[in-house]
């Protein structure tokens, strides 16, 4: 794979990682419910889910998903249900996401990793995203080493992006402002997650 082709892949993966969506909301929620470590755990578990879809695309398994609408819709609805569950919990809490910090009671790293993995693995649109965009890169990558780079690139960029987000959100100056508006943060997080769940259902 040439450097110019790889740089094109990097640009696409960065734009995909930076686009706002349920992944960003879940990373932020887990940061505020624990620490930067929770955000990092969410980030890299999410990146592993992204890697699975990237690998499936390279191997051609995403084609099966694309041509099986029942399977596609089933996974999409599972993802929407999980987003809805997260959103309802956020709406019911009374500043609970940030109150845990004040009480010195952090969310489990395992729970954060679970959220990160599920939010990516229950998003079949990732498979279609990679299937649509990876075809040109896979065609350029006949060697197994090159195809490994095609898979590893989105994993590393996704994990690094959300790691940076986690470190920024949990900076003391930023964190104090968020804690002062804990209930509002929870409500907004809940609305965003529920809105994303409804959008998934509406677009199916």
Description:
The protein is 85% helix and 0% strand. The chain contains eleven helices and no strands. It has helices at 3-18, 22-32, 36-59, 61-66, 69-92, 96-102, 109-121, 125-139, 144-169, 172-180, 182-203. α2 (22-32) packs antiparallel against α3 (36-59), α2 runs antiparallel to α11 (182-203) and α3 crosses α8. The relative contact order is 0.23.
Secondary-structure topology with pairs:
Blueprint: H1 3-18, H2 22-32, H3 36-59, H4 61-66, H5 69-92, H6 96-102, H7 109-121, H8 125-139, H9 144-169, H10 172-180, H11 182-203
Helix pairs in contact: 1-9, 2-3, 2-7, 2-9, 2-11, 3-7, 3-8, 3-9, 5-11, 6-11
Short description:
It contains eleven helices and no strands. It is an all-alpha fold. It starts with a helix and ends with a helix.
Task: Throw out a few tags for this protein.
mainly alpha, 204 residues, globular
Rg, please?
Answer: 18 Å
Q: Whole-number average pLDDT?
A: 78
Q: What is the H-and-E element order? A: HHHHHHHHHHH
Number of helices: 11
Largest sheet: none
* Quaternary organisation: single chain
Strand composition percent: under 5%
Globular, elongated, flat, extended or rod-shaped: what is the shape?
A: globular
Poorly predicted ranges: 100-104
**Distance from first to last alpha carbon:** 36 Å
According to DSSP, the number of beta strands is: 0
Helix coverage percent:
over 70%
- Overall structural class, as computed from helix and strand content, comes to mainly alpha
């Amino acid at each position: 794979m040439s450097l110019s082709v790889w740089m094109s892949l990097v640009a696409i993966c960065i734009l995909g990682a930076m686009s706002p969506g349920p992944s960003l909301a879940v990373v932020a929620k887990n940061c505020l419910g624990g620490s930067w470590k929770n955000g990092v755990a969410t980030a890299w578990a999410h990146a592993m889910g992204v890697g699975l879809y990237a690998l499936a695309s390279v191997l051609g398994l995403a084609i099966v998903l694309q041509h099986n609408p029942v399977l596609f819709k089933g996974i999409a609805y599972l993802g929407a249900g999980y987003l809805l569950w997260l959103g309802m919990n956020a709406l019911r809490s009374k500043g609970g996401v940030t109150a845990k910090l004040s009480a010195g009671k952090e969310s489990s790293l395992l729970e954060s990793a679970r959220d990160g993995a599920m939010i990516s693995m229950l998003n079949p649109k990732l498979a279609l995203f990679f299937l649509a965009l990876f075809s040109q890169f896979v065609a350029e990558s006949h060697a197994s080493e090159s195809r490994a780079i095609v898979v590893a690139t989105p994993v590393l960029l996704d994990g690094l992006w959300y790691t940076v987000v986690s470190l920024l959100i949990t900076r003391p100056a930023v964190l104090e402002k968020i804690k002062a508006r804990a209930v509002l943060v929870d409500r907004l997080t809940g609305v965003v997650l529920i809105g994303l769940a409804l959008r998934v259902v509406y677009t199916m």
